[in-house]
Amino acid sequence: MRTAPTFFKLSGAGNDFIAFAEPEQPPTGDEIRAWCRRGLSLGADGVFTLERRPTGHGSGPTVRMVHYNADGERSDLCLNGSRCAARLAFHLGWHSETTPPELQLKTDAGVLRAHRTAVDRIALELPKIVEAPQEITLEGEDYSFDGWLLRVGVPHLVLAWPEPLNHAPVAELGPSLRAHPDLGEGGANVNFVRFFEPNRCQLRTFERGVEAETLACGTGMIATVAAGLAAKRLTSPVTALTAGGHEVTVEGALDGSTPWTLEGDARIVATGTLQSGAIGGPGPPAWR
């Protein structure tokens, strides 16, 4: 392990991340898994690295982001992580001198345009990576659910839940639904959703790679709004309430006539130095 790497801790509407700006070397899978374990290390939903790139074309400088889930695997896209990455880049001065300041964020799923709407609020404009939702029915040993399946850089299942979300069995059903064979190899993130007014919704998300419910999921918000538009349950723009208590604004159109945007909370929580003890805990026990 490298000696005492300097980190930033960020939160985007409840998703939390450990970040490294221009690290000497990328983190290993073992390091990521250790650092993300809550209670035994710093704890996070994921890790990302940032590097400066040559000036972009018309939307401010370009910053390269690489995101890893808590399981140590590299992920194509995490939108709350991307908003946090943009927040950190603005903090580091890696942005245009325009008002508002802008930058381009290069991810494994494409280039996102980012601008700061307030000190701790970041808006992202997505490339054309939002697929049309497809209706799907998932059958299990003791359940049958109708929902929508689509990719927003990564795959998502959206389920319209008939009861208040505090009663939704996210922890109980999330693992089996996330890995359901009908969702394809690798499975999908699972969103339990309530549609209310045409411009408001609520959601709770079980995230693959984290293998648990997180307090927010940016791609899940986009997927939820896309499904709501397809079902004629929502009208853009939409305010989405996350499990972390934050409201995030989503805007877009299924036909691509309006670019998809995601705007909400993204803040730097702490910065410091990871010590050797951050990686010294044992692995999960093999319970008997």
Describe this structure in words.
The protein has two domains: 6-126 and 267-274, Diaminopimelate Epimerase, Chain A, domain 1; 134-258, Diaminopimelate Epimerase, Chain A, domain 1 (Roll). The protein contains four helices and 18 strands. The protein has helices spanning 29-35, 79-91, 170-178, 218-230, and strands at residues 6-12, 15-21, 46-52, 62-69, 74-75, 102-107, 110-118, 121-125, 134-139, 144-152, 154-160, 189-195, 200-207, 212-214, 238-241, 247-251, 261-265, 267-273. It has an 18-stranded mixed sheet that branches. The two termini are 32 Å apart.
Topology:
Blueprint: E1 6-12, E2 15-21, H1 29-35, E3 46-52, E4 62-69, E5 74-75, H2 79-91, E6 102-107, E7 110-118, E8 121-125, E9 134-139, E10 144-152, E11 154-160, H3 170-178, E12 189-195, E13 200-207, E14 212-214, H4 218-230, E15 238-241, E16 247-251, E17 261-265, E18 267-273
Parallel strand pairs: 2-3, 4-6, 11-12, 13-15
Antiparallel strand pairs: 1-2, 1-18, 3-4, 4-5, 6-7, 7-8, 8-17, 9-10, 10-11, 12-13, 13-14, 15-16, 16-17
